[in-house]
Specification:
The chain is an alpha+beta fold and 119 residues long. The protein contains two helices and five strands, in the order βαβββαβ. The protein has a five-stranded mixed sheet, covered by helices on one side. A hairpin with a 3-residue loop joins strand 3 and strand 4. Helix 1 packs across helix 2. It starts with 14 loop residues before the first strand and ends in a 10-residue tail after the last strand. Bound molecules: FE2/S2 (inorganic) cluster (FES).
Length: 119
């Protein structure tokens, strides 16, 4: 069922953070705890509203399935592993708020597309 006019309108945002809540990378589902913590951390750092807001999402699997919980931040395409609540707080403050990637916790970085790969 389609509702309203297309395209839908959407307010600006600065980054998107995805948290794996699956049970393969983290058999005790610690990603769920991280996802529950996110709104209060984002609110505390002023990242829930306005053009600098951060969108968040949970996903059942990111295809890594080890060293979780896995957390990914776009548009940088930075993948964090073994994320604890304290590391999540650093990601929110240092990366999402201040724009400084928490390098020591990164295990993968998406390559920027080249001009020819976009055609
Ligand atoms: S279950 Fe988390 S990456 Fe697959």
């Amino acid at each position: 069922m389609t509702t309203g006019a297309f395209p839908p309108s959407m307010e600006a945002y600065s980054r998107h953070i995805l948290v794996c809540v699956g049970g393969y990378c983290s058999p005790d589902h610690r990603g769920r705890e991280l996802y529950r913590l996110l709104p209060s951390l984002l609110q505390r750092e002023g990242l829930l509203f306005g053009p600098g807001r951060v969108k968040r999402g949970e996903t059942p699997c990111l295809g890594v399935c080890t060293h979780g919980p896995i957390v990914v931040v776009y548009p940088e395409g930075v993948w964090y592993g073994d994320v604890t609540p304290s590391l999540l707080e650093r990601i929110v403050v240092e990366h999402l708020r201040d724009g400084k990637i928490v390098d020591e916790a990164v295990f993968f970085r998406m390559k920027a597309p080249t001009p020819s790969s976009r055609e």
